[in-house]
Structure of Stage II sporulation protein R:
Amino acid sequence: MGKWKIVCFLSLLSILTYFSGKVALKGEEILRIHIIANSNNPKDQFVKYLVRDRVLKEYSQELKNLKGIKEIEKFIGNNLQDIEDLAGNVLIENGLAYGAHGELGNFDFPTRLYLDTVYPKGQYKALKIILGEGKGDNWWCVMFPPLCLVGEIEEKGVFAEPSGEIEDVEVEYEYFILNLLKKIIEFIKKIFS
């Protein structure tokens, strides 16, 4: 009976993993925005999100109106200095003088799940914004197709002004695989109880 449970568990795990999201196709035109924090200090991590919010808020309407990845790349290339300046201004407003650097190019990324799509390890076009030394955790999303520029971002309060002191911010991490395993275990308990 024990082997049967293991086979069921592994089969269920395979099915749930397969249906939990789609895989981005090789060669599919994808452009990411990738923001790398100066460090993992809570203030540096918090300001990374402020930079994200400001950049997306400032440029989301223009980017939504562009057709295709080539137009978006051209727009970003023409506005790269303004994007760097905008990010630098957010840092200055928050008492950080280490500056920001922007790059548009092809960069290596590990396998990641974003919304319902798995993006396999590989090189992807990206607007990379490096804050200070760029040694902290990063944030990214897909700019094209415009997954991080959709209207629901504003509805969820992504662009809301922060409240409280930056030092009081706690970072909470979630792990996709652990959450999936918890759901699978709960499901199996229901089946066998």
